[in-house]
């Protein structure tokens, strides 16, 4: 029982991270119908920015942990949003209206470029940071069969929940959200109504990137170990999560992220850690065979 | 009308400068955490180092680069406005000259290894180009003709390579026997992948194929009893010519011995080159022929409109599965060659990057164009080779080139997404357009 709960908590933590990244995929897919392959790299950039920011703050002698967390979060969000904007502007916007494959290839190119520039500029070796958030709560006794929730895990789950609520509010209630949804439905019509579609798309990229940046900061806190390659696998899994939940659906992305995190944690805990990714992709294939448009996605009706 | 344009022209240099300055400013700001700052380990702890001079240099480069790109872009726009004739590049794939060009390229490809036989590097690089050409042609069946987006093509390449490596090292089967066996085996995997994806639309298909590729790689990595995991399989036998090997004179019958000539290491290199050239040309012939058969027409029809296909009574299931199977077979055969050439394989060679490179070759070449694949394979293999002297920048260059080529020519280098068979009306429209008659 305690192992079950422990894996559930680990899975929720992982799933929150995947969910945050998956939002970016699903939003971009919803509005442009393209797979933003460079999104995983934005998450990696977020992790590196946070690592550097933490080190700078430590060197500057900042001692208050909550303040440091807040500053780093802000820095990570600002910079990753900037990167999201830049990637869209350079690699995707010139390709709008061309074939479906062109932006995908451009995105893969951007992803390879970002990965290798970080490797060159920041070094290929693993970077490790001193654990900042230590300690946690233990439930159900102590020792081997207790269930541990570390402060970092709690922070991740709480921050993700808060961000999700804020994000849902933004999409459903604010004027930006209305513009964003309008662009998803019909870009031509939205443009005719006097809405700057390009700007809305840019904003979408920035918000998605900022969420991935938060995930990158969290992972730096949680594991304390990052390298330039973490973006690929996290990106693929987050995209898997978005597809599993039904691409284009925001609650679907969150649900898919949590499910992927839970599957991974349970499979690693009960069966084998080596094959956990095989389990993730295997379940994805199974789900898609029986529900081709994902768990919460609407089946698309093709009109002739 | 003329007045505002002249005014516009007068303002342009200044506008270009502000634009470039803005780009440089953005680059400066975004560069702070990666170019301006870096962390190094000092005594087990991370410390920050600053590199402001690098950051300024990078911003300067962006400034100049942006100016240059703007200038080129505006010139291109102006040129496009003046003349409206189709460019020679666009016609290369379809015009009558294409047969001549094809024959010329094949001639060069055949002569090349003999001309450069004392230069190991040239023949080796050319062999690599040909492997990618063959992979590109194989994937072109799936992506270019049938319009199914496959992000895990490297899985079939891996299946072929491991099939040969295992059959040859465990059972001593020869290269030539393994070619068809591995092809069939890879085809089985193609159908296996194709079957669950039949109902999926484009992008779902993409992620499932990507997942499939990763599953294959992870299994190869973790099934250590069979594949030796990350250590890979070593000492894979080289291909032979009618049972004669290309080894130095020894106990086995060698080609040099049979022909009564002196042994030279370049014999094997040139032989390997000719084998892959032959395989690639066979692939090309097969694909070109199939495009004219009902099955090839069905692929192209499905790419254009699946629903219309169904309505016409085409069995979409079979059409999709056959595209997957043929693509997989070709990938598997290329894999056999790869294993035989390298003599050593490990899961390292079959990562997603490899799939991305093959897909990039197909798309950059212009989906569906056979000649475009050759051109793109040359560009993508040779471009990083040019940067070999500063080899750590190779992949950086590669990624940047992918973005740049796509932005420059979104339809691919030779864009020819046109059905092999057109209705008469469409043919006329195309002919008129090429003759410069506005539609």
Relative helix content of chain A: over 70%
Any idea what the radius of gyration of chain A is? Answer: 19 Å
Strand order of the largest sheet of chain B: 1-2
Q: Helix segment count of chain A?
A: 11
- Lateral strand order in the biggest sheet of chain A: 1-4
Describe, in short, the structure shown.
The complex is a heterodimer of chains A (304) and B (439). Chain A has 304 residues and is mainly alpha-helical. Chain A is built from 11 helices and 4 strands.
Keywords:
heterodimer; A: about 300 residues; mainly alpha; two-stranded antiparallel sheet; 4 strands; about 75% helix; B: about 450 residues; ABC transporter involved in vitamin B12 uptake, BtuC; 2 domains; 2 strands; about 70% helix; globular
Describe this entry's structure for a reader.
- The complex is a heterodimer of chains A (304) and B (439).
- The longest helix of chain A has 31 residues, at 2-32.
- Chain A has helices at residues 2-32, 39-60, 65-92, 101-122, 151-173, 175-185, 187-192, 197-223, 230-245, 250-270, 276-290, and strands spanning 127-128, 136-139, 147-150, 225-226.
- The N and C termini of chain A lie far apart (54 Å).
- Chain A is globular, with a radius of gyration of 19 Å.
- In chain A, α1 (2-32) packs antiparallel against α10 (250-270).
- In chain A, β2 (136-139) and β3 (147-150) form a beta hairpin.
- Chain A contains 11 helices and 4 strands.
- Chain B has 2 domains: 2-74, no CATH class; 93-427, ABC transporter involved in vitamin B12 uptake, BtuC (Orthogonal Bundle), CATH 1.10.3470.
- Helix content of chain B is 71%, strand content 3%.
- Chain B contains 18 helices and 2 strands.
- Chain B is globular and about 75 Å long.
- Classes of the chains: A mainly alpha (304), B mainly alpha (439).
- The interface between A and B is large, with 72 and 63 residues.
